[in-house]
């Protein structure tokens, strides 16, 4: 009996959740699409200004939709528990926690009806995180694999760069706290560092602004530094992606004439016409 159950678990996993199978990728994509549709339903419900939400005083359309979405996600969660080789590892994994969190709002509302509806709405909207599973599947696509490889190879430069930016934020925030002070809104170091982050990203909310000439000079320098926040990481990733694409092309070698530099999608050698290996 245990052997048959184990066989069913393996078949279920391979059919529904194995990213190396076509059916598994399709099912994950379908779940991601369903999660996205459920988030759109939440925004439509919020935009219409419905007051009943999940109180179930009356069984409106959105109540039925939320019930259906929750049941589907609950079924998916238990199917994953059943088919996973190590269920406890799945339960405490990142995706296991996300999956559990997305099915809880309805049950929480049933158990504690007095909970603020705004919290439940925000909680339900977190289902958008499930769409990231589709991106996880896309890593099996060649181009996206190159992108992830480029980010991974540039990780040291990116960590160094953003560490430097964090130090700059603290230094400039401290300067503005010293120059402007509480009189002009820089009441604490936290508020000053917040202003530095908003300024360096060129967002400029305007809730805190420098008023002294020296403070405006510091702000101008920080704004100029902000342009490099976008330019430097983009250049790093682009360079590593170009190198990764070149390496991939060189790896496609013709077994007959040893010609390299083939496109990844090429099926035949561009020199002798022989069929290329997968």
TrEMBL record:
Membrane topology according to the record: Multi-pass membrane protein
Record's keyword terms, sorted: Ion channel, Ion transport, Membrane, Potassium, Potassium channel, Potassium transport, Transmembrane, Transmembrane helix, Transport, Voltage-gated channel
Ion transport domain segment(s): 27-244
Subcellular location: Membrane
Primary location recorded for the protein, binned into one broad class: membrane
Transmembrane regions listed in the UniProt entry: 30-49, 61-79, 91-112, 159-179, 185-205, 217-237
Record SUPFAM superfamilies: Voltage-gated potassium channels
InterPro entries, A to Z: Ion_trans_dom, VG_K_chnl, Volt_channel_dom_sf
PANTHER family associated with the record: POTASSIUM VOLTAGE-GATED CHANNEL PROTEIN SHAB, VOLTAGE-GATED POTASSIUM CHANNEL
Name assigned to this protein: Transporter
Species the sequence originates in: Lelliottia aquatilis
């Amino acid at each position: 009996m245990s052997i048959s159950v184990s066989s069913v678990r393996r078949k279920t996993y391979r059919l529904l959740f194995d990213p190396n199978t076509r059916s598994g990728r399709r099912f994950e994509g379908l779940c991601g699409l369903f999660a996205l549709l459920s988030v759109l339903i939440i925004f439509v419900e919020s935009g219409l200004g419905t007051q009943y939400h999940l109180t179930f005083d009356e069984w409106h359309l959105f109540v039925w939709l939320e019930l259906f979405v929750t049941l589907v996600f609950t079924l998916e969660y238990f199917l994953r528990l059943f088919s996973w080789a190590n269920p406890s590892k799945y339960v405490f994994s990142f995706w296991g926690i996300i999956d559990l969190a997305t099915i809880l709002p309805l049950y929480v509302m049933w158990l504690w009806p007095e909970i603020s509806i705004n919290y439940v709405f925000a909680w339900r909207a977190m289902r958008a995180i499930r769409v990231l599973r589709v991106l996880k599947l896309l890593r099996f696509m060649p181009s996206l694999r190159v992108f992830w490889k480029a980010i991974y190879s540039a990780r040291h430069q990116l960590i160094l760069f953003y560490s430097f930016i964090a130090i700059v934020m603290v230094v400039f925030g401290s300067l503005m706290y010293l120059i402007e002070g509480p009189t002009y809104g820089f009441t604490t170091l936290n508020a000053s560092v917040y202003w530095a982050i908003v300024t360096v990203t060129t967002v400029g909310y305007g809730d805190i602004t420098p008023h002294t000439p020296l403070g405006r000079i510091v702000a101008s320098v920080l704004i100029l530094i902000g342009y490099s926040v976008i330019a430097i990481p983009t250049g790093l990733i682009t360079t590593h992606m170009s190198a990764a694409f070149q390496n991939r092309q060189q790896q496609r070698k013709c077994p007959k004439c040893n010609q390299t530099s083939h496109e990844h999608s090429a099926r035949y050698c561009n020199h002798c016409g022989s069929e290329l290996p997968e």
